[in-house]
Amino acid sequence: MQIIVNGKQVPLTDQVRTIRDLLDSYQLMEKIVVVEQNGTIIERSLYENQTIADGDRIEIVHFVGGG
Amino acid sequence: MDVLKIGAYEFRSRLLLGTGKFADLDTQGKAVEVSGAEILTFAVRRLNLENPHEPHFLERLDLKRFTLLPNTAGAYTAEEAVRIARLAKASGLCDMIKVEVIGDQRTLLPDPIGTLEASRILVEEGFTVLTYTNDDPILARRLQEVGVHAVMPGASPIGSGQGIINENNLRFIIEEAKVPIIVDAGIGSPADCAKAMELGADGVLLNTAVALADDPVLMAEAMKLGVEAGRKGFLAGRIPKKRYASASSPTEGMIE
């Protein structure tokens, strides 16, 4: 399965089925990040059950320094 | 107590500090500390997935002491700004948003139409909206009509350090304001802060003037003092300017 994360093609292993799995694969569950899947923001409480499909466009964003 | 009220929030500091362009996190931490700022701006960006664990300023902050003001920087349309604002709010850290819809890459001046539209939508969605705008009194009025919680006119182009270019427009905006007016962008020196506050602004938001100063920590303190001096000067009520001299010492009782 191929998805696009932050604008880049990412091949997924069979173990990565949900948003939770994806964040775990980057070790991001403890970080303050926000996830958008195909233009829809995914609430933190839904990560566990929110499945990922082939071709999904996912954005993982956070706060950076800015004025 | 001289309190700055923005929406449901109350602050004692009238200096809002941006968090961009600092050379390192230690300098930034010290600058934030001495500035006395209670509101800090941030931008929303993609996480760098090649290095997702690089040190992060937010992780050092005591979030009970600071209110985060994420911005919609990078947006060139109302739709983009609304999208960024929703992402920022979904962090669960804040409901404040600095609306910033840019109309031109070279000057970074705001697009007034997109700015007004994004502000209207975000007010409706329940955000506490602080809008970065041109120093246009009519646009400031329109923004207040759609319910923004603060209007933030630029002093001069973002990061230019030119200070207040159009004092007259700022004065017009301040005179009829029903929400706090925060002078945002273009501040170069503590004198600019003092000037803005003396004109009756409710606060000043700046970033580059501190972050890129030779000594950012010392400049952060200077800006804090500039804002405080200007505010006190405004509250105290300055004397009118006169064309000719008026002696400070008694003119009676001269020794002959």
From TrEMBL, chain A:
InterPro entries registered for this protein in UniProt: Beta-grasp_dom_sf, Mopterin_synth/thiamin_S_b, Thi_S, ThiS/MoaD-like
Pfam families: ThiS
SUPFAM superfamilies linked: MoaD/ThiS (SSF54285)
Origin superkingdom: Bacteria
Name listed for the protein in its UniProt record: Sulfur carrier protein ThiS
Native organism: Brevibacillus panacihumi
From TrEMBL, chain B:
UniProt entry tagged with the keyword Acyltransferase: no
GO cellular component, one term: cytoplasm
CDD domains, alphabetized: ThiG (cd04728)
Pathway terms, separated by semicolons: Cofactor biosynthesis; thiamine diphosphate biosynthesis
Nuclease among keywords: no
E.C. number: 2.8.1.10
Domain Thiazole synthase ThiG residue range list: 5-250
InterPro entries: Aldolase_TIM, Thiazole_synthase_ThiG, ThiG
Biological processes, Gene Ontology terms: thiamine diphosphate biosynthetic process
Active site annotation, chain numbering: 98 (schiff-base intermediate with dxp)
Compartment(s) where it occurs, according to its Swiss-Prot or TrEMBL record: Cytoplasm
Signal peptide segment: none
UniProt keyword terms in alphabetical order: Cytoplasm, Schiff base, Thiamine biosynthesis, Transferase
Molecular function per GO: thiazole synthase activity
Catalysed conversion reaction: [ThiS sulfur-carrier protein]-C-terminal-Gly-aminoethanethioate + 2-iminoacetate + 1-deoxy-D-xylulose 5-phosphate = [ThiS sulfur-carrier protein]-C-terminal Gly-Gly + 2-[(2R,5Z)-2-carboxy-4-methylthiazol-5(2H)-ylidene]ethyl phosphate + 2 H2O + H(+)
Chief site of localization: cytoplasm
Family, as annotated: Belongs to the ThiG family.
Function, in words: Catalyzes the rearrangement of 1-deoxy-D-xylulose 5-phosphate (DXP) to produce the thiazole phosphate moiety of thiamine. Sulfur is provided by the thiocarboxylate moiety of the carrier protein ThiS. In vitro, sulfur can be provided by H(2)S.
Subunit (UniProt): Homotetramer. Forms heterodimers with either ThiH or ThiS.
Cited PANTHER family: THIAZOLE SYNTHASE (PTHR34266)
Protein name, UniProt field: Thiazole synthase
Gene: thiG
